[in-house]
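User:
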Amino acid sequence: MSTQSFPLIQTYRPTTFRERGVAMPFTSPRLAGARVRPAERTGTEFVVPNPSGGRGVYVLHWGGVRQLCAPTVHDTLLHQRVARLPVMDPGGVRGVARQLAAEGMAGKDAALAARTTQSSDRDELVLVNFLLLITLMEQVEPTGLRVSVATERTPELDFNARRIVSRVGRELGRGTARVGGDLEGLSLYLAAIGLDADAPPARLPRLAARLERVAASVARFADQCADEAFCHLAGALARGAGAAADCADSTISAARAVTHDMRGLLRAWAETPAEIAEQLSRPEWVLDGWERFCLLWETAPTTASHRAALLEMAQAVPVSPMELSAWNHDRPDIDARERLPRAAGGRDAGRAAPAFGLIARNESLQALLA
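Assistant: Predicted structure:
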C-alpha cells in the first residue's frame, strides 16, 4: 500500500521520552528508525519515519505496519513480546530483543553476540550489587576500604556486611532481607550506569563515549567533504550527536551522585521507588536509539558508503523531547531531515541492495548492538 494512504504528521516534537517511544531494533528495511510506545487506549503504536526521507512521521498500529511493509518473523515476534511488557522502556525492550536474538531469530552471529552480552550483563549486575554494598558499608562505618572491582570478598567482609545492613535496616524500619532486596533493585538500574568506583566503564558510559567519538568523526567528514549538501548534513548530525553525548554524561553523573548518600537513597527507594527509578532511567532514555546511529557510521568503510550512511543516520537521529529541559539540560534542536540532500533521492539513496540484502545487513547490525 502506498504511504500516501497514511496520515503524515509533519511536525513531530514529543513532550516526553515515553511519548517519543522506544527505539526498536527491527530488521525490516522500511521499519528502520521506528519506535514503539503504548497506545492511548490499548495495545501499542509505532512511530515510523517518513519512508520518503522527508520530514514527518507516521503513527501506526500493527495493522498499519503490516500494510506499510511485510515485517520479518523477527519483527513480528519482537512486537508481540514488547507488547506484553508491563513497562515499555529502553531497558525492557533491550532485554526482549536480546532474548529474541539469543534464540537465533536474527541470525547466528546475532545469537552468539546476544548470549555473550547476556552473560556479561549478569556479571556486571553481580559486580555493581557488591560494589553498592561496599559503598554502603564505607559510608556507615568508614574503614578506608577501597570500593573496587579488586576488593576481595572474605568471611570477615561478609560478617560486617550483614551487621551493617541489619543496622541500616533498623534505622529505616526495614528488615535485613528487605534492605538486601532494595540494594538488588537499585543494582538493576545502576548496573548499566556504573558507580564512582575503581571498575571498568559500564554499558551506558561506554556508549556515551562511543557517541562522542562518532560525533567527532562525522565532524571531520563534514570538514573534508566536497559536496556542500552532505557537508551541511554531516555537520548537523555531528552537532546533534555531540550534544546528546554531553547530555548523557550529565545524566550519568547525576544518577551516580545519588549513591553518595546511601542511607538517603535507601530511604527514598523505600518511600518513593518510582521517583528514584525515573531518575536512574534518564541516561538510558537519553541514549536510546543512538547506538544504531553509531553503528551505521562505524560500519561504513568508504566515502561513498559514508554518504549513504548519513542519509540513514538522518532518519535514525532521535528527536529530543521537551522533557529534557525539565531535567535542566539544553535540548539539542536539530531536525536532520530538513537537511537531507534533495539530489540524493531521500531515504532510499545509496540502497542498491535488494530487500533481503538490507535485512541481512540489519541482522548483522543486531550482532554488534551492545
